[in-house]
């Protein structure tokens, strides 16, 4: 993927749905619901059991989506993820060797950073965008606005404390995109297994952000 295409996708779709689950079928189900709701950037964390099979399954079922992985910590994990054809990679930290490996393979890697120094360093090392993590512990959108004043040239993706309630504020504060996880699967939809109801609720939320679109032709 050209990294310009990745930035274009971030600017267009704005929401990255993060799936973390302890059971493979549940992880796939969550990813399918996100895709059908219109979320086109889907991260299956590498610590999900069978992540290496779930990711290609979702890519085939929902070809209009970008399906990547996250919580990559080691070279071994990164190499395994690249081998299954992930569309992007997120890490909770900044590791120069991981970044160089992924970029050399043509796959965008978004490293996690917290302070201005860490963010600038990650960007100078070639990161096409930087994950600001955990945004919820340092003031949320207010912290993002302060970062954007001197670092407005760096595409920032806040995660860790982003919710459906504050995602719009994060985007308005200058985030190129936002990453959400737990808040995408609220009660009672999740415990009841009401996937259609959850899909509809997420679609309404996306529309409230000015984001619409159906992301593929599969079914959960």
CATH superfamily: Aldolase class I
Helix and strand element order:
HEHEHEHEHEEHEHEHEHH
Please give the order of strands in the largest beta sheet: 3-2-1-9
Q: What is the CA-atom radius of gyration, in angstroms?
A: 16 Å
Q: Give the strand content.
A: 5-15%
The beta-strand count equals 9
Name of the CATH class: Alpha Beta
Note the main attributes of this structure.
about 220 residues, alpha/beta, four-stranded parallel sheet, 9 strands, about 15% strand, globular
Task: Describe the 3D structure.
The protein is an alpha/beta fold and 220 residues long. The chain has one domain: TIM Barrel (Alpha-Beta Barrel). Helix content is 45%, strand content 14%. The protein contains ten helices and nine strands. The strands form three sheets. The chain has a four-stranded parallel beta sheet. The protein has a three-stranded parallel beta sheet with strand order 6-7-8, covered by helices on one side. Helix 6 links the parallel strand 6 and strand 7.
Summed up:
The chain has 220 residues and is of the alpha/beta class. Helix content is 45%, strand content 14%.
Helices and strands in order, then pairings?
Elements: H1 3-13, E1 15-19, H2 24-37, E2 41-45, H3 51-61, E3 66-70, H4 75-83, E4 89-90, H5 96-104, E5 109-110, E6 112-113, H6 116-124, E7 130-132, H7 141-151, E8 156-158, H8 167-172, E9 178-180, H9 189-192, H10 195-208
Parallel strand pairs: 1-2, 1-9, 2-3, 4-5, 6-7, 7-8
